[in-house]
Amino acid sequence: MLRIRHEVDGGAELLFAEEADRPEAAAGEVLIRVEAVGVTLPTVRKVREGSGPVPLGGEVAGVIVALGAGVTAFGVGDRVTGLCFADAYAEFAVLNTAMTSPIPDGATAVEAVALVRSGLVARGAYEAARVEPGESVLVTAAAGAVGTLALQYAKAGGAARVVAAVSSADKADFVRGLGADEVVRYEDADWGAPYDVILDGVGGDLLGPAVRALATGGRLVAFSSGGGTVEAYELLVRGASVIGFQMRAIAVGKPELYDRWRRELWQMRDAGALRTVVHEEIPLDDAARAHALIEQRRNLGKVVLVPRAPSR
Fold this sequence. Notes:
- Helix 2 (109-129) packs across helix 3, helix 2 packs across helix 8 (255-271) and helix 7 (247-253) crosses helix 8.
- The protein has 2 domains: 2-103 and 277-306, Quinone Oxidoreductase, Chain A, domain 1, CATH 3.90.180.10; 119-247, Rossmann fold (3-Layer(aba) Sandwich).
- The longest helix is centred in the middle third of the chain and has 21 residues, at 109-129.
- The protein is globular.
- It has helices spanning 41-49, 109-129, 145-156, 172-176, 207-212, 232-238, 247-253, 255-271, 287-295, and strands spanning 2-9, 12-19, 29-38, 58-67, 79-84, 92-96, 100-102, 136-139, 161-166, 182-185, 195-200, 214-222, 241-244, 278-283, 302-306.
- It is of the alpha/beta class.
- Helix content is 30%, strand content 30%.
- Strand 1 (2-9) and strand 2 (12-19) form a beta hairpin.
- The protein is built from 9 helices and 15 strands.
- The strands form 3 sheets. Strands 3, 4, 5, 6, 7, 14 and 15 form a 7-stranded mixed β-sheet that branches.
């Protein structure tokens, strides 16, 4: 099968295609023939920042071709999506059943990787913020895969003011089309502050300005892999709080809630309350270009890799 591997050569980051043996599903796992791979920001960051080779994880969707021991919730031929932590950029991938969910009839694999994981993170971050009707919400990385869905959640949840924070002004019309009432750029002075809630998918150097944009009693939910430092004094003077959110904790620790949120995602999509946006479908062997799109903040929505017809 075709697989993309990450290597470091003389300090240069390389993503290159190679032929590899098809993996096998261990106990509690399923093996799928991959139809779509959603490129995630955490993986892109690990590739760029790591001092050595890193596993290429991501959201995958496809058809189950083999079951590991003890798997009863799924069968061969089922269409599923889930998060693969290593070797996701391949024609075949292994999924742990705890991180796997069915794709409903009528939906494509590309839609699945654009909706499920990003939608679950957007939903979870929104729930963690305990947004009240009438409050103001700022979403950073608003033009990204999670941000586009977080904007729509905020509008559907009754927020009085939903503001999109983006890296450049040329994304303004795009995020307004997804429900943003206003648009700010990261370089703007005060981001149109204050906000009752900030859903932050960027972190890093932007975490400080985000905290300073909180209103009295405001809540910032950090769900990115970007890290960053928060000054306790900034929280103290605002009576504000920062909440960390991780989707894996829900998937593993609260599987019933994970399943309910997943079902509701598809229901909202079917009802027209959530719209997925795919920036581009890129051939698997051109994964480096997909990473560049995200690194350069040029993507509007999800970047998806599409394998060719699999080799045997």
